[in-house]
Amino acid sequence: MFNDIGPLELVTLIVLAVLVFGPDKLPKLIQDATRTIRKIREFSESAKQDIRQELGPEFKDFEFDDLNPKKFIRKQLDNDDLGLKEIRNGFDLKKEMAEVTDAVHGHEPESSSSSGSSAPSGGSVDMTKKSEKPGDERPPYDADAT
């Protein structure tokens, strides 16, 4: 619950609590806080059990953690029924971007050229660069195609 609180911050909070509430009221306040947290946890567990009972036996393996989008996506990616790992591993974004850049500039792909390509390194595309060939003109702009 408090994984990101360091020891110095914890000491500061304790000293601040003693100063604000006083040493006389602090033990009673801690007892009330722990009792309230315990009641909230019991209420949460009973609500989870009620929901599981209402859903029926077909949802016996339902976990409430699945409602968290991050955990749901991780679970689906780990369950490789769809072959997502193969697709993810087979896709190289830098290579794809280099091929697109070479196609736009009219160069040979990097993998087949022997002396290296003049495509920008790092996969970035310079859209402001003019064509080096003097006879090359841009095709007419077609507003309906965009």
UniProtKB/TrEMBL annotation:
Gene Ontology BP term (one): protein transport by the Tat complex
Stretches with biased composition (Basic and acidic residues): 99-110, 127-146
Main location: membrane
Native species: Streptomyces ferrugineus
Membrane topology reported for the UniProt record: Single-pass membrane protein
NCBIfam families: PRK01371.1-1 (NF002374), PRK01371.1-4 (NF002377)
Physiological role: Part of the twin-arginine translocation (Tat) system that transports large folded proteins containing a characteristic twin-arginine motif in their signal peptide across membranes. Together with TatC, TatB is part of a receptor directly interacting with Tat signal peptides. TatB may form an oligomeric binding site that transiently accommodates folded Tat precursor proteins before their translocation.
Gene field: tatB
Location of region: Disordered: 99-146
Protein name: Sec-independent protein translocase protein TatB
Keyword list, A-Z: Cell membrane, Membrane, Protein transport, Translocation, Transmembrane, Transmembrane helix, Transport
